[in-house]
C-alpha cells in the first residue's frame, strides 16, 4: 500500500517534527549550560591553553578526510597525560556530556563528527614513545605518535611498524579503527599487531586490556579485551596507549609492475602467487580507468589495462627466487610488460603511479571531490565483484577508477563527484550501497579497512545480523551505559 | 692508491626532537633526549658504502669524536656497511667546547695516519649548522674540496662532483686525495637492517685519544648565552582596509 500524504498526515508529521526540533533545541540548551558549568573544571585539569572554544579549532576537530560534513564539538580539550584524560572523562560523565576522542583527523568514515555536540578530546599532546624493547620486537606509544614518527624513531634499531594505511595517522587512532594498508597481505592489520591497550572508559576508569605493562607474544588469558577495543572507533573508550608488534626492516626490496588482458587474469595471478607460498609484501591492483588516470597525471606510459603492482621483501637471494617465480606465474596468465626494480629511486618511480592514484583520480575531473568505497570479499569472488561493479559504474554514469589490495580481496572505487551536482552525489550513494550489498552477498564485508563510522551503520546490521548486533549493543550498554562515548557511530542507537 | 675512505659521523640530538633551552641559558637540554647520527653524515656514509659496492674504493672507515655514546653512532655506520670504526675520545668540558676547528685537526691527522684517499663528511651538523669542518680539513691537508655534493663520480684518480650552489649546479673535477661534503640530494641513506646490525657488532672500533694525534683541543670560542627564538605574538583582526593601513602606519611598518 502506498503512503499518501493527506492534509491531516502532513499536519501530524509537521507537529511531530516541531516537537522533535523543540526536543533537540531543549537538549541543545541543556548541553550548552552543562558545557559552561564544566569549563572551569576542564581548565583546572589541563590548564588555560588546554581548553578551546574557538570556532576554527572546533571546526578543525569536527571533521576528518571523509565526505561527511563537519559536526563541530562544543569544546575541544587537549590533555597531556592519562591522568588528565581520566579526570576530564569523569567530569563529562558526571555532566552527561558526549566524549569524542581525536587523533589526527585522517579517518575516512566521519568518525570524529560530534553529532550530539559534546567534548572533543584532542590527544595530540600525548606524544611519547615509551618502552621500546628491540630484543622483544615491541613498543608502546601514546595517541599523539603517528606511524611515520614511530618509524623514524625506530630507524636505527633495524625495526619498523609496517601497517601503512597511506595517511600519516595516529597509531592509537589506527588501533581504534582497526586500520590496515598495502602491507597487510604479509604483515597483517592492526588486529594482529596490537598486543595491549591502555583505555580510559566513559566514567574515567583506566584499564589495561592485557594487564599493565604486559607484552608476551601470545596469551590465552581471559577474554580478548584488546581486540574488543581495536576497531571500536571511540565508542567504548579512549585509547591512551597502544603496545605494538614490530618487525625487522627488510634487508632488500624489489618492486615490479605487470599488465594483464583481463581482471580475471590479474586476480588469478594473485591467487597463484599466494598459493605458491611466495611471501609477497604488497600486491596492488589498478584497473584500466585508474591506470589511464595515472598515466595522464604522472606523465607515464603504462599500457591501459588491468595492472598489478608487486613488492617483495627479503634477503638478496630470496628476492631473486621470489621475483622469478612471480614473473613465471604472471606470464602463464597472459601477463605482459613485466618490469622490476631493485634500487630505491627506480622502485619509487615504478610505484609512483600507485602512490598518486588518489590525486590522479581527482585530476580526471578538476574541481571534483573524491569518495572511496571499501568492500572486501574472499579472493575467489574478486573477479566477479569487480566485473559487476565496473558494469554498474557504466550504467550509473559514474567515474570510479578502481585500486585494490588484491592480496586481501579488498578494493576501493575512488568515486570522483562534482560537489555541486546533488543528483550525482545521490547516484554515488546508491551505487555505494549496491556495492556493499554485492560484497555481503559474496560472503564479504562492507568495510575492509575504513571502519563503520557514520555512513555504514545500517550495512553493519545487514552484515552481522540482528543477533550479533544485540550482543554488540549489550557490550556497549555495559561499558558505556550513558552512551557518551562517540555517540552515533558504529551502532544505530539514540535515534541517529 | 690505498682505496680507503674516511667518513666522519657526528652524534647529534635527533631531528624529530623538540629542542628546549636549559633554564640557566647555558645551552640546550641533552640529558635523556634522543640522539642519532646527523642526517648529512648518514648521506655521507651511504655514498661511501655505494662507492665500495661499485668496487671503486676498498675500505670505509667511520670516525666519530665524542664521549662513550659516540660509539653507538659508529655502530650505526658499521650497520650501514662501513668496515671498521675509529672512536676519538673527547668528553666533559672538552666535548662541550668541541667545534669544527678541533675536529678538522683530528680528521687531518687521521687521514695522514690511515693514508686515506677520500674524506666524506656531511655538509653541516644539524645542531650547530657550522658547515666548516669539511672546508677546514681540506685546508689543513692542502687537499682539493668538493662541497655541497649532489652527485659524485670517480674518474680514475680524479673525482667529478656536481655541487649545489645558489645559482644552480656547478660541476667540478678534482684530484684525489680530496675532501667531499654531502648535500641532501646526493642519495637516500639505507636503513640499518637486523642482520647487518648483528654483523656490525663483530666489526672493530679502535679507541684513540686526541693527544695521541698531537691535537690541542683548546677552544677559541666561548658560548656566552643560548636563548629560544621569541614567542610568536597573537595577531589581531581588523574590520576594514582603512583600519589595516592605520594599524600598519601606527606600528611604523608603512
UniProtKB/TrEMBL annotation, chain B:
GO cellular component entries: electron transfer flavoprotein complex; mitochondrial matrix
Domain Electron transfer flavoprotein alpha/beta-subunit N-terminal residue range list: 25-217
The residue ranges crossing the membrane are: none
Q: Which PROSITE patterns match?
A: ETF_BETA (PS01065)
In terms of superkingdom, the source organism counts as: Eukaryota
- Where, per UniProt, does this protein localize? Mitochondrion matrix
- Biological process (GO), any one: fatty acid beta-oxidation using acyl-CoA dehydrogenase
Q: Which UniProt keywords apply?
A: Electron transport, Mitochondrion, Transport
Residues of the signal peptide = none
Pfam families for the chain: ETF
Read off the InterPro entries from this record. Answer: ET-Flavoprotein_bsu_CS, ETF_a/b_N, ETF_b, ETF_beta_N, Rossmann-like_a/b/a_fold
MF terms in GO: electron transfer activity
Briefly state the protein's biological role.
The electron transfer flavoprotein serves as a specific electron acceptor for several dehydrogenases, including five acyl-CoA dehydrogenases, glutaryl-CoA and sarcosine dehydrogenase. It transfers the electrons to the main mitochondrial respiratory chain via ETF-ubiquinone oxidoreductase (ETF dehydrogenase).
Q: State the similarity comment.
A: Belongs to the ETF beta-subunit/FixA family.
Assembly, per entry: Heterodimer composed of ETFA and ETFB. Identified in a complex that contains ETFA, ETFB and ETFRF1. Interacts with ACADM.
* Protein known as: Electron transfer flavoprotein subunit beta
